[in-house]
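User: My instructor asked us to take a sequence, write out its structure as tokens, and then describe one feature of it. I'm not sure where to start. Here is the sequence I was given:
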Amino acid sequence: MKDHAQAKIELINAAIMVAEQVEVKAAFPLESNELACLKTLKRAVSEYKETKQAKRVDENGDEFDSLHGCG
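Assistant: Let's start with the prediction itself. The structure tokens for your sequence are:
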């Protein structure tokens, strides 16, 4: 499974590709390359949802390194 950061990068890149393709032909039916971009976006979203985000750990109100629970 991909890590969260890599999945996020791929999700953003796929969203940009889709936006560019759809913006160009908003009034016309989608072509195969545009449908492929949408499929890539859907896959990237699914993989992004499967990744785990860093969770905040707030022990004793110490926020020095709250993402890692250190400090």
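For the description part of your assignment, you could build on this observation: The chain has one domain: 1-71. Try explaining in your own words what that tells you about the chain.
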